[in-house]
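Private note to self, pasted from the team thread so I don't lose it. Backbone tokens:
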């Protein structure tokens, strides 16, 4: 019954010798193994169930919430895949096995919490994700995920189908991004790949249709056509690469396909915090550029590095603010002065 998105009621005859829908649970349970095999939007998981089988809720797009009882020890392959209305999930301490792609394509997920006593998985530092504790591998994230500095890899399909993810900061502890890691992240506008990353999985950035800026600091230039596809319009995007490797990036696939390729230098690492000669301050936070200390009426404008106007303003109450997007580089003009700013 995978993909039966409108299913509301599931009843197994009480005399069935193999399957049941005990306690009016609106599901199919394999009786001997206590494995739930198929659920729907109105399913309640009984406390006697010990596992959720492969594809149990796959494609149940009307499922908004589910309570996993502490009797459950495993979630099967693609268990909640494409449950596009599911907004939150809590993994109890009893779950010690999460199979492949459990939450891939859950585009509305906002909160992921693993019980603090779980011996195999965690959501350390309130990160809104599932991390395999021993390997420090993030297995599943959501729109509100923050990647802790202790994570060393992003697993296969980690953010797959997270269509509401607009930006993410990858810490320098991360060395690899798994297969399909950001596929179908259709709202992702920019991303920075730190120099610590040495491996990018197949179709890592497929179907990232809003991607405009990639800051790639990798020193080993990975040549793999499968990183981007036609639905990720890199021909209209800007790539920043290490200055000393710029010629290599310009000739290597798929990087050569970017519309604009510019050098990344260390001077761009630090945003402009102060311009004392003008008596003003420039700060960046959450994708915004804030210019303060201005005389009211001072003209301020913000441009992309290729000259596209992002906005114009006249200072009001000494301040002008522009939405530039995280992990981007912009030119801010204050009067006749110009500043190149890295937006965090």
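Design output:
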């Amino acid at each position: 019954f995978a993909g039966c998105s409108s299913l509301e009621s599931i009843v197994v005859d009480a005399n069935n010798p193999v399957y049941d829908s005990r306690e009016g649970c609106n599901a199919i349970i394999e009786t001997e193994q206590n494995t739930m095999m198929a659920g729907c939007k109105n399913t309640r998981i009984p406390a006697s169930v010990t596992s959720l089988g492969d594809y149990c809720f796959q494609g149940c797009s009307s499922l908004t919430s589910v309570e996993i009882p502490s009797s459950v020890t495993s979630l099967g392959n693609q268990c909640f895949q494409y449950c596009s209305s599911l907004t939150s999930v809590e993994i109890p301490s009893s779950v010690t096995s999460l199979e492949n792609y459990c939450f891939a394509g859950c585009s509305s997920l906002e909160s992921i919490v693993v019980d603090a006593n779980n011996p195999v998985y965690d959501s350390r530092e309130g990160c809104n994700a599932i991390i395999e504790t021993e390997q420090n591998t993030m297995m599943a994230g959501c729109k509100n995920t923050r990647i802790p500095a202790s994570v060393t890899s992003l697993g296969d399909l980690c953010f797959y189908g997270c269509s509401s993810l607009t930006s993410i900061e990858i810490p320098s502890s991360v060395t690899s991004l798994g297969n399909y890691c950001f596929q179908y992240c259709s709202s992702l506008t920019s991303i920075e790949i730190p120099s610590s990353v040495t491996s990018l999985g197949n179709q890592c950035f497929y179907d990232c249709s809003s991607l405009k800026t990639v800051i790639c600091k990798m020193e080993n230039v990975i040549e793999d056509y499968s990183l981007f596809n036609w639905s990720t319009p890199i021909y209209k995007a800007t790539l920043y690469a290490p200055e000393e490797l710029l010629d290599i990036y310009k000739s290597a696939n798929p990087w050569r396909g970017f519309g604009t390729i510019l050098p990344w230098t260390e001077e761009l690492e630090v945003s402009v915090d102060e311009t004392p000669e003008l008596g003003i301050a420039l700060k960046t936070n959450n994708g915004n550029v804030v210019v303060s200390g201005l005389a009211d009426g001072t003209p301020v404008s913000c441009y992309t590095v290729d000259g596209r106007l992002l906005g114009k303003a006249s200072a009001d109450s000494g301040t002008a603010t522009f939405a530039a997007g995280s992990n981007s580089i912009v030119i801010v003009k204050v009067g006749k002065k110009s500043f190149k700013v890295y937006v965090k």
